Amino acid sequence: MLNYITRMRSRIGHDPLLLCGASIILYNASQQVLMLNRSDNGCWCFPGGAMELGETTEEVVRRELLEETGLAVDELQTFGVFSGEELHYVYPNGDEVYIVDVVYTSDQFRGELAINEESRAYRFFDIADIPAEISPPVVPVVEELKRRHGVTV
Prior knowledge:
The protein is of the alpha+beta class. The chain has 3 helices and 10 strands. It has helices at 3-12, 57-69, 139-148; strands spanning 17-26, 33-38, 44-45, 48-50, 71-73, 77-82, 88-90, 96-106, 109-111, 119-125. The strands form 3 sheets. Strands 1, 4, 6, 7 and 8 form a 5-stranded mixed sheet that branches. Strands 3-2-10 form a 3-stranded antiparallel sheet, with no helix packed on it. Strand 7 and strand 8 (96-106) form a beta hairpin. It is globular, with a radius of gyration of 15 Å.
């Protein structure tokens, strides 16, 4: 966990915290998207995470992608910014957040894919076959991804 968030949590407990972060929709050559199966809630999500003080969202997504998957990315395209009630979430440990997620896409990555302790598994999915068990803050992103690819939500 980030030092900033740890410090804030020591002051406010589980009360709501505004959390800015970034995530990435990573496409392989078959136009499938990489998703991770989270260890904390058993749901699928895109690689990403919370911003550290002084970071740009581009730095966040590159750092988180490398930490969570071992992959590096250079080119990023902005997919969208997601926020509001739909991104309100209470983590399994009781921490409550309102997330602002800056989402990027890329199909240019390198490295050897391996997950860290935050995930139980990884998989590339066809957009039409993304599983229903999506981490709640990621649902609006998946819905928009499917809409843009003409997949019925």
